[in-house]
Amino acid sequence: MPRSVNHVASRERRRKLLKETRGYFGRRKNVWTVAKNTWEKGQTYAYRDRKKKKGLFRALWIQRINAAARLEGISYSKLMGLIAKENIEINRKVLADLAVNHPETFKAVVKKAMGA
């Protein structure tokens, strides 16, 4: 019995991937093997960078908190230590937002942390 090959499915699969690689440079957009390798590598980078993004945002929040805290005369490290000691339940994301958009509220949090 002859081998059965589902050309419809394989052609559709290739067409779908080539649609994903539209806009790539040179053979990366229209040669199947090159496009497939490029697309797979891109998916790997996307997965890795979704994880990396979280760390980058945390670093940004820390920089913002540190800058605002130093205007209040205290370092980031000391401020976070005092916040933990005073049992103030506030995360870095919210604290950074307060530092940028609501400086008066941030000052109040710093005063509370310092025990004043």
Secondary structure topology:
Blueprint: H1 7-20, H2 32-71, H3 76-85, H4 92-101, H5 103-114
Question: How would you describe what is shown here?
Answer:
The protein has 116 residues and is mostly helical. The protein has one domain (7-114): Orthogonal Bundle (c-terminal domain of poly(a) binding protein). 74% of the residues lie in helices and 0% in strands. It has helices at 7-20, 32-71, 76-85, 92-101, 103-114. α2 (32-71) crosses α4 (92-101), α3 packs across α5 and α4 (92-101) crosses α5 (103-114).
Care to count the β-strands?
0
The CATH homologous superfamily is named Ribosomal protein L20, C-terminal domain
Tell me, what's the shape? Answer: rod-shaped
Q: Specify the helix fraction band.
A: over 70%
Name of the top-level CATH class: Mainly Alpha
The CATH architecture name reads: Orthogonal Bundle
Derived from helix and strand composition plus strand pairing, the structural class reads: mainly alpha
Tell me the strand percentage band: under 5%
- What name does CATH use for the topology? c-terminal domain of poly(a) binding protein
Q: What labels would you give this structure?
A:
c-terminal domain of poly(a) binding protein, mainly alpha, rod-shaped, 116 residues
How would you summarize this macromolecular structure in one to three sentences?
This protein has helices spanning 7-20, 32-71, 76-85, 92-101, 103-114.
